[in-house]
Amino acid sequence: MIDKDTIIGLSDKYFNETVSFRRYFHQHPELSKKEKETSAFICKKLDEWGIGYNNNIYGYGIFGFIDGKEPHTRCIALRADMDALPIMEETNLECKSVNEGVMHACGHDLHMSALLGTIKILNELRDSFCGRIMFIFQPSEEEYPGGAVSMIKAGIFNEVKPEAVLAFHCTPELPCGRVAVREGKMMASTDEIYIKIIGKGGHGATPHLDVDPVVAACHVVTALQTIVSRNANPTMPTTFSVGRFIAEGRTNIIPDEVNMDCIIRTFDEDWRKKCHALIKRISENTAAAFGCVADVFVDHGYPFVYNNPELTQFVVRTLKEVLGEDEVQNADMRMTAEDFAYFGQVVPACYFRLGTHIEGEDVYNLHSSRFNANEEALRYAMQSEVYLVLKFLEGKSFSE
C-alpha cells in the first residue's frame, strides 16, 4: 500500500492545478444536458495525461479506467456530477459565472475538479497498485430522469462492473475537510407532482355562476398536508411541499384552472407508492367537493440513497486513517435527493459529505446564489478519494 504521506504530498503537489480546474468550471457553468464545454475540458485534460475514456454517454457523460498492475483483479468506481443550476450568481468571485443565469451553486465544479486531480494522482501511481479504478463524470444530476440511470442504461457497466462506487458532495454547514457519512438510508427519494384543478372561470363579482378552482385548490393544498401529519408513520421521515401555485386570473376574473407543482420525499418504496395514491385520491375528492376536477400527474424521480453498510464501515475506517479520527462524523438523514441512488441499486455504493465552509464567512446553503466553497477542501477530497480506492484495491473484501 502506498503510504499516506505520499498521497498527501501528491495532493499538495497538484493542488494549485486542481484549483484552476475548479475556477474554470465555476466560471463556465452549463445546465443539465448542455454540459458540452464542460465535457470538452475534461476530455482535453484526459488526452493530455494519456488516459483513455469513452465520452458522449447520455449527451456529455464520460467514463474510463486507470489500470494498475493486473487490472482484472478488482475494480472500484468514483463518480462526479457535472451540471450547474439556473441561478443568477451573486458572489464577488473573480471566477464568477460568465453564463448569465447559470451557476455552479451545488458544488459540482468542486466535485469534477477533485475527481480530475484524483485521476492525475492515480495515473502517476498506476505502476504501484493492482486493479482498476473506474471514473465517471455524470451529466444531468439536477434534472429528471437524471444522468446516473441514463448512463447505466447506456451500458457503462456492461463490460466492467465495479465492485463498489463512491462519491462525495460539498456541504457548506460542515467545517472544511470534515466528513459526514452514515450506513443505510442517507438521502430521500423524490417525486415531482403536477396537479391541475379545473373549474369554470368567470366574473369575480358573480362567483355563483362560476366553479372556482382557486378556492378548491387552496383546500387541496391544505388537505394534502395530512399525508405527512395523519397518514405517515411518525417514525418515517416524509415531506410534502407545494412550490408553485398558479391561478392566472385577475382581481375580477376567476380563472378556469389552477396549476400546482409539488414534491413528495421519503425513505421507503412501499410508502412512496402509497403517497402517490393518496395524493391522487385527496386531490380528486377534495376538488370534486367544490365541483371541480383534479388532474394529477406523478413524475417519478430518484430513489433514496442507500449506503451499503459493509462498504460504509470500510469508508469510515479508511477516512479516519487519512483525515484523522475527529474529522469523520456520523451524518443525519437528509430530505435532499441525489440520482447517485441509481448506482447503489446496481453495485454496493457509499455517498459521503465533505465540509466546504469558509471560516469566518456566513454559511450560504447549496442552491443559494451566494454559495461558495472553500477551495482547500480539494486537498481533502483528493486525499480521501485516492486513499479510499487504493485501500480498497489492496484488500480482498470491504472488511479488510
Question: Which helices and strands occur, and which strands form pairs?
Answer:
Blueprint: H1 4-13, H2 15-27, H3 36-48, E1 53-57, E2 61-67, E3 75-81, H4 108-124, E4 132-138, H5 147-153, E5 164-175, E6 179-181, E7 184-187, E8 189-198, E9 202-203, H6 213-224, H7 226-231, E10 238-246, E11 253-254, E12 257-266, H8 269-289, E13 293-300, E14 305-307, H9 309-323, E15 328-330, H10 341-344, E16 349-357, H11 377-394
Describe, in plain words, how this protein is organized in 3D:
The structure is a single chain. This protein folds into two domains: 276 residues, Aminopeptidase, CATH 3.40.630; 112 residues, Alpha-Beta Plaits. 34% of the residues lie in helices and 25% in strands. The strands form four sheets. An eight-stranded mixed β-sheet has the order 1-2-4-3-5-16-6-15, sandwiched between helices. Strands 10-12-8-13 form a four-stranded antiparallel β-sheet.
List keywords for this structure.
Alpha-Beta Plaits, 4-stranded antiparallel beta sheet, 25% strand, alpha/beta, single chain, 2 domains, 400 residues, 11 helices, 16 strands, Aminopeptidase
Query: How far is it from the N-terminal to the C-terminal residue, by CA?
Result: 13 Å
Number of helices: 11
Question: How would you classify the helix and strand content by structural class?
Answer: alpha/beta
| CATH fold assignment of the largest domain | Aminopeptidase
Q: Spatial order of the strands in the main sheet?
A: 1-2-4-3-5-16-6-15
Low-confidence stretches: none
CATH class annotation of the largest domain: Alpha Beta
Order of helices and strands: HHHEEEHEHEEEEEHHEEEHEEHEHEH
Computed over alpha carbons, the radius of gyration is: 24 Å
Task: Report helical residue fraction.
Answer: 25-40%
Query: CATH architecture of the largest domain, please?
Result: 3-Layer(aba) Sandwich
The number of domains is 2
In CATH, what is the homologous superfamily of the largest domain? Zn peptidases
Q: Tell me the major beta sheet.
A: 8 strands, mixed
The total strand number stands at 16
